[in-house]
Amino acid sequence: MKKFLITAILVVGFSTIALAQRHPPRPTPPPHPSKTQLANSKANELDKRYRAEKKLIMNHPVATKKMKADQLKALNLRYQNEKKLLKAAK
User: Fold this and answer.
1) Please, what sign has the CA dihedral across residues 61, 67, 69, 74?
2) CA-to-CA distance for 42 and 46, rounded, in angstroms?
3) Dihedral Cα 19, 21, 22, 28, nearest 10 deg
4) In 3-state terms, what secondary structure has residue 86?
5) Could you count the other beta carbons within 10 Å of the beta carbon of residue 86?
6) Crossing angle for the helix pair 65-89 and 35-58, nearest 10 degrees?
7) What are phi and psi of 28, to 5 degrees?
8) Do residues 71 and 63 touch, judged by C-beta distance below 8 A?
9) Cα separation of 45 and 68, whole Å?
10) Cα–Cα distance between 19 and 30 in angstroms, integer?
11) Are 89 and 82 in contact (CB under 8 A)?
12) In angstroms, rounded to a whole number, what is the distance separating the alpha carbons of residues 86 and 6?
């Protein structure tokens, strides 16, 4: 009887271990960012992209001052429009 009890406990233990390895517990999904956090991250990305493009325009070796001014004007206009859209989405 004692051998049977030990064998039964071992079988049950091994089966639960095997079952747990086949079906690991589901990880909890990460929490969704709030609307303001999402808008802030988008604004930060927009600022980074704006600064990078402005730096590229200003450091262009071939462009003349007039070309740079025109490109900066277009970049500023696009940046302002995208900022307005982000503020409207908030």
Assistant:
1) negative
2) 6
3) 110
4) helix
5) 14
6) 180
7) -75, 135
8) yes
9) 23
10) 26
11) no
12) 67
Cα(28)–Cα(14) distance, integer angstroms = 26
What string of DSSP letters covers 31-68? PPPPHHHHHHHHHHHHHHHHHHHHHHHHT-SS--HHHH
Q: Which residue has the tokens 């500023």?
A: 76
Token pair for residue 73? 């004007």
Q: Residue 3: pLDDT band by 50, 70, 90 thresholds?
A: confident
Q: How far is CA 8 from CA 31, 63, 73, in A?
A: 43, 83, 80
- pLDDT tens readout for residues 30-75: 788 888 888 899 999 999 999 999 999 999 999 999 999 999 999 9
Residue 29: partners with Cβ closer than 8 Å, 6 or more residues away: none
φ/ψ bin of 64: left (φ > 0), alpha (ψ from -120 to 50), beta (otherwise): beta
